[in-house]
Amino acid sequence: MRFLRDAEQRPPRNSGWASRQIPRTGAEWLAVFVLMLSAFGCDGGPAVDEASASSEAAATTEGPTTKAEDGNEPSIETDADAPFVLGDLIKPFDPPPTLEALEASKTWVDSPVVDAMARLRKQKQSEPPLVSVEQALAMKNESEEANQKILSALSVLPSEEGGRVDYDATINRSFQQDLRSTNPVLVSSMSESEIASMIAFALFGFDWAMNPFASADSVVSWRTSEDRMVDLVVLRDDLTWSDGKPITARDVEFSYRLIMSSAVPVPAMRAGTSDLQLVKAYDDRTVAFFHKKSSAVNVWSLNFTIVPEHVYADSVAEDPTLRKSAHHIQQEKKPVVGGPYGLESHVRGQEVVLARRESFYKHNGKQVREIPYFKQIRYRILEDQNTSLLALKSGDLDETLLGPEQWTTQTSGDDFYRNNTKVRGEESTFFYVCWNLKSPFFDDLRVRRAMAHAMNYEEMLDDLCFGLFGRSTGIFDPQSWAYPKEPPQLLEYDLDRAEDLLDEAGWGDSDGDGIRDKEINGRVTPFEFSLIVSNKPDRIAICNLLRENLESIGVLCRIAPLEAAVLQERSFQRNFQAMMAGWGAGADPYISNNIYATPGERNYGSYSNAEVDRLFAEAEREFDREKRAEMYGRIHHLIYADQPYMFLYTRSSFYAFNKQLRGYRFSPRGAFSYSPGFGSIWRLLP
Amino acid sequence: MIALAYVVMMGLVALLSPAIAGTKPLVCSYQGKLYFPALGYFNRSWENAVFRKDRFRNVYPAKLREKDPASWAIWPLVYQDPYRRVRDGEWPDQPANPTRDEGRPNRFNLFGTNRAGVDVFAQMVHGARTALLVGFVSMGIATTIGVIVGATAGFFGGWIDTALSRLIEVVMCVPSLVLILALIAVLERPTIWHLMAVLGVTGWTGIARLTRAEFLRLKELDYVVAARAIGVGRTAIMFRHLMRNAMAPVLVPVTFGIASAILTESALSFLGFGAPPPNPSWGALLNDGRGNQQMWWLIVFPGVAIFLTVLAYNLIGEGLQESTDPRLAGAE
């Protein structure tokens, strides 16, 4: 998940999840809002922001929201005097009374239960390394070819028995923002979801190609009813919480009820679970998930954070915030967790230390799961990306994110290559300028198209982005299956065309002051808007290029750099005229629904196209991937034509790793946030 | 003396910035009329709209020739713009500004360029305007408030003095930097004028105290007593007899105040809270250079400019102090 840290805000809703073999699924990946993105932005943003990436994350509320058809949007505001009711947001529903009745009532299809590490090992066997590890470590990553070679050699995995793994190793990592809470159910920022992915128990995950599965570490079997209305999962019997109590299906049901309680402040997490009709444990090991509708994408609502029932069952009534009572404060310091790592210590503003949990991989003295590769994970909180790079060079960190500028200019010398190497991967994150279609400037398609013609894309990519990023061609990433077969015809840099379009739209210069204006509601309004952007030099530089071009055609653009939190708040309130930000990839394109459809919760620019709405709804009901791809391709084209966004560039991820580390591999979500992700990284015995 | 010369020179640079570095002609004849497009650097609306209408796109040299072969123009000394990158073919034989980290100082970019290819020299010349404006405007506000409050307190004495002195103490406790940061967060569209206003409104206490002390001393002098005895009005005594004599020592905190206002503005810009982009500012340049130490020219030139300017004002302040403080004079 580190990658998120940088940029995107990911929906916490899923947050928990897994790291090592524990799969994480879903929703989490939903689209991540990259408001702030980090350093990477093409904007070159290296340095400073990288760091911040995590902070950006703050997006607390992301998460797909479903449009609940029944309109039960959960609200957090409740009467403080009302007694606490666990699961008060769950609609009445009568599930079959017994497991036998349920099993008899449906036809069942097996869904995949996968050992993520085994799957990765198998994949690796089909990809022989292009060069030896020694050769790879001696190389400098100066071309795409070199990058491929280094990645193929260093993504080597140890044998199942462990081989040359240093199981006593500590890995030093960093993130940019301190944790507000260590409770995985309260995740609201990148760093919190990073920690949650290490310590939380999870049933589901997805691999580097975004295929969802149930994790063989936690699940024995997973069946889905043929009508896709019910998922039935059987848990393993050798799962243990960090306090020694067994993890059971009851914990899963309890966690669902906890999240669906209006007094518990987890609106983001609830966005996913509100797609579910009910979660019911039939015995200690069997849990059924009942869905509200038959859909191709139900699997993405299954993964929510699972917390121990015996810890919270009594205390939540007295303190629904989960943070204030003495018992909960105690839990913050030493949470009872079910993931591969447990929280060792948290020093505010300085570091978070996690330690491998013996009860994760051993049961009754016998090893039942693979041993996580690190004994300890130490996160330092470093807000500035340059500081992280210096710490990496001096050996205080073992891996870090790089910005494009750092990649190009500060990591080519021997001081860097002595202890480290660097790799890059494509990432499905694009940056854009979002127009507020409610503003009098941008409600006209001709104006939005004029804006798109007024950006010097070539200079942005070559100069401001160091030639490392590609141009964004719309809402889906070319690597995604949802991408149309024929890409849209891109709007090119053409100021004459832009001026003609503006003239056509009625934006002439009637008062002769050199600034275009138009009569709106009887008043002459000059074309002068503000463009909000997160306060990162690389991103500001890109806005500045747009401003320069617009100014030369008589449109004034005021750049307003904002703190991450303020930017996020303004976007939620739709209080802006134009905003530069980014979106990360969703696991499944349906998640974009709430960004582009009406009245999507994250549709900050208030874009609305009936045809797009219809296609999104239809694609969600369609089970055939080919047909879905066709519909999403249509959506891609429609949105590009409507230009509710000016599509700028797609970002890659850049990482530096210590030369002793092995086993890293990229997904469209970066090197860590998938299964196994961080779980496959190991350190060589000294 | 050198300090004074330096300050005067900076003032001239600030005033003449569009003539030193710019891409708009100072004077040009276009289609039979005279225009002054360079004034657009001071205020955008002073740039004649005809050029926008004729789609000049801020590239004057080529467009002037193309649209009106009979035109002529007087150009700034250096063809570089503080707001944008100069690209290929704008000016004969001048290549496009280098971008990324390649913009080390060269013949066309005296102080190098930043990552986006904007010339550092042009930004510094135009940034001088920002720096001096901040210094003078904020201290102008502070002096006005400080002198009035100090004079009132010192002249009337009694409960007025007590009340105003307490007010001064209260204002002294206001942390101006924090106030500015808070203001920036609250304002929809913060500008450099807000910053000057805050610096002015919080920075007058030293001036007020000095003025008050001077008034307390002066009003007991014989000539004031004499003036009062022959029936001169209070206002006349205050402004005609006291104010003039009290002014010399007040200049000292004002000069120091200008220096500190320039420092504050640079510090805020360095932190990214200064004037919004693309307004050139020395502090913003430093901020640019922070990310990559290999681009030393982004740090050295603005750093030296800030250092010298602050030093010059402090030297002037010290000189004034020496010449107005009788104790120092006696010591020599």
From TrEMBL, chain A:
InterPro entries with a match to the protein in the record: SBP_5 (IPR039424), SBP_5_dom (IPR000914)
Pfam families: SBP_bac_5 (PF00496)
Region annotation Disordered: where it falls in the sequence: 47-79
Gene Ontology molecular functions: peptide transmembrane transporter activity
Gene3D superfamilies named in the record: Dipeptide-binding Protein, Domain 1, Dipeptide-binding Protein, Domain 3, Periplasmic binding protein-like II
GO terms (BP aspect): peptide transport
SUPFAM superfamilies found in the cross-reference section: Periplasmic binding protein-like II (SSF53850)
Ranges for domain Solute-binding protein family: 221-592
Tagged with keyword Transport: yes
Superkingdom in the source lineage: Bacteria
Protein name: Oligopeptide-binding protein AppA
TrEMBL record, chain B:
Key word Transmembrane present: yes
Name of the gene: yejE
Limits of the ABC transmembrane type-1 domain: 128-317
Biological processes annotated in GO: transmembrane transport
Record's keyword annotation contains Disulfide bond: no
Membrane-protein topology: Multi-pass membrane protein
Membrane-crossing segments per the record: 132-160, 167-186, 250-275, 295-316
A GO CC annotation given for this chain: plasma membrane
Species per Swiss-Prot/TrEMBL record: Botrimarina hoheduenensis
Subcellular location: Cell membrane
Keywords in alphabetical order: Cell membrane, Membrane, Transmembrane, Transmembrane helix, Transport
Protein name: Inner membrane ABC transporter permease protein YejE
Family: Belongs to the binding-protein-dependent transport system permease family.
